[in-house]
Amino acid sequence: MVTITFPDRETEKRALAFLVGRFSGRVLRSGEHLVPEAALEALADQNIPFTVKGKTTYEQQMAAIRGASSSSVQ
Questions:
Q1: What is the pLDDT of residue 36?
Q2: pLDDT tens, position by position, 1-54
Q3: Are the beta carbons of 27 and 73 closer than 8 angstroms?
């Protein structure tokens, strides 16, 4: 999993609409998104801008599992 962000809310909405049903992931309350690495290429192919923050940390994964996320992308 990789942690990414989007430059603005409209881009985020467009990205989520594209990702739903294609990739699993989580949206954290911080606004960061946890997605599989394969999603990065798919977003780039759709010309959806994003910033890679890095590999998802253990703490981020645990926060998502504990329900600290605001929603899921599935």
A1: 94
A2: 999 999 999 999 999 999 999 998 888 888 899 999 999 999 999 999 999 999
A3: yes
Comparing C-alpha atoms, which of 36, 37, 39, 44 is closest to residue 19? 39
**The total number of residues written for the chain in this structure:** 74
Residues contacting 55, CB < 8 A, separation 6+: 1, 2, 3
Helix then strand then coil, in percent of the chain rounded to 5, is 40, 30, 35
